[in-house]
Design goal:
heterodimer; A: mainly alpha; two-stranded antiparallel ribbon; about 0% strand; globular; B: alpha/beta; 6-stranded mixed beta sheet; 17 strands
């Protein structure tokens, strides 16, 4: 038989899965949708504006940077969108317009592109953006709006977050503010409380996280070790003046613990790749979060805890080398 | 008995339905065959024929070039018309003998020796050796070498590999369904040669008909067990199969199955062993699955060694217009061939034709995002992500620290990689740049 057409030749394997990096990025973004929508519902148009601005400026930053450096434009891979979305979810609802723009610029350009782009960044870009904003604009970044106020008038009524109350005035005061314990937990679960736009609704976040588990995009290792460690420390040291009297649930449900444990600490690029190492990583995150919450100057510690543990991720992978088939245990 | 397996692995679409129900049929004899003198791992053969010499079917045309080598025989009767270098499926030029078919199908003397079971082990081994039998699952390692372990490595288990975990391929499946008794006879020969009284047949659980037939064939065999294995690629890799059935782990290279007392043979090889022991029949034909979305009529063909791929494609109704990639072997570990004018060899288990749709992923690859999927599924417990990054950046020595040479290139990592990184290619590059 004469050969009529050229054949394609490449190295095996000749079949590959359907999974792509951009599909992962867009799917994770989609899993954050319930929590984002709840944030919009509670905090109103200002929140929508803030998140949208974050996403737009994140994508634009990437586009402009890559164009300027004559690199391949990769905005469509969804990673800049996800960074912008996560940053927006981590901002107070009523920040002025330049805050999202500066934060996105820092996140995408400084924390990601200058390190070499997707896959090469050491730190979670959205959290670097937020850390920069918190340190540079401490006042703007800690003005919290009361959820109900949002729809009534555009001027935000400033209030304290549950973690702020917990830190300054104790658990008893927090219960008093919300009426009773049941109401407190319920409101925390639903997300009817002051806080960053996307961190408040625990239920919506858990729905998104369940979706990621179902898709196999995240595993239990980091969230369980993160939350477990935090819960144990909160229980032992959480109450002032007495050991083993703290309220772990209160700590898990408030602040950015759920958003951090399921969506930020699990960022592939900046967490360890080996499962055993991920457990250590999660324990470190949980420990540092509680250290900052209970002993540090900030009411919330999730962001710094994850950023600090990001530094250790490559080291952890090195230390936890996989068990090679057939190799003798040392 | 149970559903056993190994740690890691993947589930590629198996596509076996294209050819699973097609009984084995003999391919039309080709006008000529190109028989490479090196179809196996190890030293090439020395040619025993000259141009214009008449040869008979089954006549030895190349003698082993060393201990790790295997004889080659003419797969038809006719005349030697050329001896020279011809391309093989891997794209290399190899010394080959071209024989023109005289259409007479004249055999060298074959003798039926129903009493073969009483032959001494040495004699059986001699027959396997002179039949030129090699592993027919793909690696083509000379069988007699596997059957000659050094004294300090006693063998206690023989496993017949019926996993056939490569997608698309159904040659071994058809053999198990159609010739179960021959397989068991072959296994018993192996057990006798190695002085072993424990034999297993491992079959993936998605082949119930094969499992049933093999169980039926072993009903009266107290020393032979048929095991259903979890459906997972690469279940048929020697090390994974041994782990699944015996729980033993073959040590890293240069470790071999014999280091844990096991010899594994492929289904087709086992039948060849039976035929060699009973009839003195050399390995001159094999079953090849010709399949894929890009071919008109998928078939399981009994093919003479040396038949050109183009002949088989014609036999199966030709390529479809969209058939763009032709693979010798399975899609996970096989070789994409650039020309259809290459011969089927002893290790060619299939010809798979893929269409544009299945090969769209060949676009540019992206950086590693360290998602860890490859680490989770690597059956060897390696970190393919790190190997690929080190190799990509040219740090080949660094790759060695991550157990580069333990990788047997099953391709699972490249299959799951969302960044479509050519991990196997990068690993091969690193292997070629540093010494083990």
């Amino acid at each position: 038989m004469k050969q009529e057409k050229p054949l394609i030749v490449s190295v095996s394997p000749h079949v590959k899965s359907e999974e792509t990096t951009s599909r992962i990025m867009w799917t994770v973004s989609a899993s954050l949708l319930p929590a984002t929508i709840m944030g919009f519902y509670f905090f109103g148009p200002r929140a929508i504006f803030t998140v949208a601005l974050c996403i737009l400026s994140a994508m634009l930053s990437e586009q402009v940077f890559q164009k300027a450096l004559k690199k391949k434009i990769t905005v469509s891979d969804g990673s800049a969108f996800l960074t912008g979305l996560l940053l927006g979810m981590n901002l107070p609802p009523s920040v002025p317009f330049y805050i999202p723009i500066i934060g996105s610029f820092i996140a995408v350009i400084i924390a990601k592109q200058l390190f070499g782009g997707l896959g090469y960044n050491v730190f979670n870009p959205a959290l670097i953006g937020r850390a920069f904003l918190l340190i540079s604009f401490p006042k703007l970044m800690t003005i919290w709006s009361n959820p109900e106020a949002a729809f009534i008038k555009m001027d935000a009524v400033t209030t304290a977050t549950p973690l702020g109350i917990l830190k300054e005035e104790g658990a008893a005061k927090l219960v008093e503010v919300f009426g009773d314990k049941i109401n407190l937990y319920t409101q925390l679960l639903v997300g009817h409380r002051a806080g960053s736009i996307g961190e408040t609704s625990v239920i919506a976040l858990l729905i998104g996280a369940a979706f990621l588990f179902y898709k196999g995009y995240i595993s239990w290792h980091i969230p369980v070790s993160f939350l477990g460690t935090a819960a144990i420390i909160a229980w032992i040291f959480g109450a002032k003046g007495a050991l083993f009297a703290g309220d772990p649930l209160l700590h898990l449900l408030s602040g950015g613990m759920i958003l951090g444990a399921f969506f930020m600490a699990t960022d592939y690029v900046t967490c360890p790749s080996i499962k055993n190492g991920q457990i250590l990583f999660g324990i470190g995150c949980g420990f540092l979060t509680m250290l900052i919450r209970l002993k540090g100057g900030y009411p919330e510690g999730v962001m710094f805890a994850i950023l600090i543990m990001n530094c250790f991720a490559p080291l952890i992978d090195r230390g936890f080398k996989t068990k090679v088939f057939g190799a003798k245990k040392k | 008995m149970g559903i056993s397996t190994f740690k890691g692995g993947i589930h590629p679409p198996d596509k076996k339905e294209l050819s699973a129900d097609k009984p084995i049929v003999e391919a039309k004899p080709p006008k000529r065959v190109i028989i490479p003198l090196s179809q196996h791992l190890g030293a090439p053969c020395k040619p025993l024929v000259t141009i214009n010499q008449e040869v008979k079917k089954g006549e030895m045309i190349g003698e082993p070039g060393g201990f790790v080598s295997a004889a080659v025989h003419s797969s038809l009767s006719g005349k030697v018309i050329a001896i020279g270098e011809f391309p093989n499926a891997m794209g290399r030029m190899v010394a080959s003998v071209v024989i023109e078919n005289d259409g007479k199908e004249e055999w060298t003397t074959l003798t039926d020796n129903p009493d073969y079971v009483n032959l001494p082990a040495d004699k059986l081994k001699e027959k396997i050796k002179s039949a030129g039998i090699v592993g027919m699952g793909g690696a083509a390692f000379p069988t007699v070498v596997k059957l000659s372990p050094p004294k300090e490595k006693p063998i206690d288990t023989v496993i017949i590999n019926g996993a056939e975990c490569e997608p698309y391929l159904t040659a071994d499946y058809r053999l198990m369904v159609e010739k179960p008794n021959e397989i068991i006879e072959g296994l018993k020969i192996l057990m006798k040669v190695l002085g072993v009284n424990k034999g297993f047949v491992g079959i993936e659980n998605n082949k119930p008909a094969a499992i049933e037939k093999m169980k039926e064939a072993t009903r009266n065999e107290l020393n032979i067990e048929v095991w259903a294995l979890e459906v997972k690629y690469p279940q048929g890799a020697e090390k994974m199969l041994i782990k699944a059935i015996t729980g033993r782990e073959v040590p890293p290279p240069p470790g071999l199955p014999m280091d844990v007392g096991v010899v594994v043979q492929n289904v087709g090889t086992t039948i060849a062993i039976y035929e060699a022991a009973r009839y003195g029949k050399p390995l001159i034909e094999r079953v090849v699955t010709v399949t894929g979305e890009g071919i008109n009529e998928p078939k399981n063909l009994l093919v003479k060694i040396g038949t050109l791929v183009s002949h088989l494609i014609d036999e199966c109704g030709g390529l479809k217009d969209e058939g763009l990639k032709v693979i010798a072997g399975g899609p996970m570990m096989g070789f994409a061939i650039s020309s259809l004018n290459v011969p089927v060899t002893k290790g060619t288990s299939g010809i798979v034709v893929l269409t544009e749709r299945e090969i769209v992923h060949a676009e540019e690859f992206q950086p590693c995002i360290r998602c860890g999927r490859c680490i989770d599924i690597c059956p060897m417990g390696l970190m393919p992500s790190m190997l690929s990054i080190y190799s990509e950046k040219g740090f080949y020595e660094g790759a060695k620290e991550y157990n580069l040479f333990d990788c047997f290139e099953c391709g699972s990592c490249a299959f799951v990689c969302p960044s479509k990184r050519p991990i196997v290619q990068l690993i091969r590059l690193a292997k070629s740049m540093v010494k083990p």
